[in-house]
Amino acid sequence: MTEDIAEQLSSVARGTDPAPRVDTQPENQPVYRPPFVLALLFTPFNLIYRLLYGSYRLFGTLFPFLPRLFNATSNPALQGARRNTTGRRSLGPQDTAARFIREFEEEHGSHSIPFLENGYNMSLEKAHRDLKFLLVVLISPEHDDTSGWVRDTLLAPEVLEVINDPRNNILVWGGNVQDSEAYQVANSLRVTKFPFVAVVVHTPNVSSNAMSVVGRITGPVSPTEFATKLRTARSLAIDRERARQRREAEAARLQEEQAAAERQAAEEKRRRDLTQWRQWRAQSLSREPGTDVKDAVRISVRLPSGERIMRRFAPDADLEELYAVVECHEMLEDAGRAMGISQPEGFVHQYAFRLVSPMPRAVFPVEDGGSIRDKIGRGGNLLVEPIGDDEDEDEEGDALSS
Length: 402
Description:
This is UBX domain-containing protein. With about 400 residues, this protein is an alpha+beta fold. The chain has 14 helices and ten strands. Helix content is about 50%, strand content about 15%. The two termini are about 80 Å apart.
């Protein structure tokens, strides 16, 4: 048993197989029944078919190599099921599940296994939606071990304890491989031995809606081994999910650190470009006109720090010249020593303040342009108001409310 558990551990650790969907008959699709007249006309052909089929079985008994020859390419574990599917009425997935549950209870008595009364695909979707494990139980009445395995292993108290413990988050879907849906599931899961149980769980590391087989329990095993393998498959799946979450958290942390570093680098570059732009703009400012210029405009600007800038401007000086003086006032003394500074490449400068007159209040936006003389007059006292995001939002709110 220890070797089998070790093999199960290594198998699960190597990776997971996708849990396939299967094509089934729609729930509400009616079963086709030919009209009575056609059924009567085809009765001779039906009798001939039954006679030939009986002869085939007779030849198969007399010459055992014939069935093996015809079924050489089929799954050995499903050959008996394939022969018997012709004797069972084809039903929709939900009705097939209800029949399986009814036949299971008739064969093995009352039990506490919460079989889902849904088709296989719907059970997969429910497990995916509810983030639970799905046990896929496939049995074949053709196999002699089935009845004893159900009685001694699947219905054993220690196995039922694992299945029914709500902390384990287990759903159970069962199927008889003599039915078409369960037969397709067995083929898709490449079942080679019965009875068979697969542990399926959502694996978001594969895709957003992927369901994968994280454990397989095949053949007759003891209740202890069954419960151990079931716990092992769950534990490894949970550990794998936690590891995935840790990897995603680490990746998110690294991405945020990289984004923060990029923001910091961008901010440092912006500051360097702004300093270079101020140096470049300061060296290109027009000289202050002398006292002999009668039409010169005299402006006094108070900064947020309380410091005042006093400067005379030519009467035709653009309003942006006044903004540039305020922006570059710290650079004006060094303008003579900072000649030859080029404009920073790719940098788009925006003034982060506006000039206003206190009483009566008037705003002189730089984007309006025009000369200082036309906008402000022969002189004036102005204030510097920083432009912030909060102020922009307040202005937008006032505009909407008005």
